[in-house]
Amino acid sequence: MEHSGVKPDVVCWTSRVHGLIECNKGEAALRALDDMGRRWVQAVVKTHGDLKNKHMQTIGDMDDIPKPSIETINAAITGFIRRKDPEQAYRVLGWAAKFCINPDVTTYNILLRPLIKEGRAKKAAALLGQMHKAGLQADIVTFTIILDEILRTSESSTPEALKETISEVFNPRILWASPALWRELVKNMQILIRFFGIE
C-alpha cells in the first residue's frame, strides 16, 4: 500500500492492529501501534516543534498521517480480551495514555464484560467506579452486559448469591447513570426480583 504512495488512514491502522492480534501476533500488533504513534509524533514535531502531552490533545491528524484514536485502542483491547490476555489490553491503555487518549464508555464496556462473566463483582464495581470518576456515564450496553451475564449465570446461582452479585455491582457508589437508564434498570430488576422470588 505504502509502496504505491497511499498512506494508511486510521481504519487501515485499526484493521492492521486488530488483524495481527486475531492472528495471535500480539507483539507485532503492539509494534504496529508504536509505528502509528511514532509517525504521528514525528509529523507533529516537524510542524509544531516539541509539545507537552497536554497540548497534543488539541492536535488531530497531520496531513495524511492519522493520530492514534480511541477506535484503534478499542479494537486492540477487544482483540486482547478475546484472546484472554487482559495484561496486554491494559498495556494498550497505558500506551494510549501517552497520546492523551482517554478510555470512553466503549472501552469500559469491553473491559467490564469479562469481569462480569468471571463473577468478579468487586472488580466490576471498581471499574464502574473508575468510569464514573472519569466523568463517563454508563450506557444501555453497560447495563445489558451486566444483566445478560447475571441472567446467564442465574440458573446455577442461589437467590441469595444472585442478590449479592446484583447489589455488589449496582451498589450506591455507582448510582450515576442517566435517569432513563435507571428507569430501564429498575424495571428489569423488578422483573428479576419477581422471577426469583427475592424479597
Automatic annotation (TrEMBL):
Keyword Membrane attached: no
**Classification via InterPro entries:** PPR-containing_protein (IPR050667), PPR_rpt (IPR002885), TPR-like_helical_dom_sf (IPR011990)
PPR repeat coordinates: 104-138
Q: Which domain of life is it from?
A: Eukaryota
Locate the transmembrane regions by residue number.
none
Q: Is Repeat tagged as a keyword? A: yes
Keyword annotations for this protein? Repeat
Q: Name the Pfam families on file.
A: PPR_2 (PF13041)
* Coiled-coil parts of chain: none
Q: Tell me the protein's name.
A: Putative Pentatricopeptide repeat-containing protein, mitochondrial
**Which organism is this entry from?**
Glarea lozoyensis (strain ATCC 74030 / MF5533)
Q: What is the lineage of its organism?
A: Eukaryota, Fungi, Dikarya, Ascomycota, Pezizomycotina
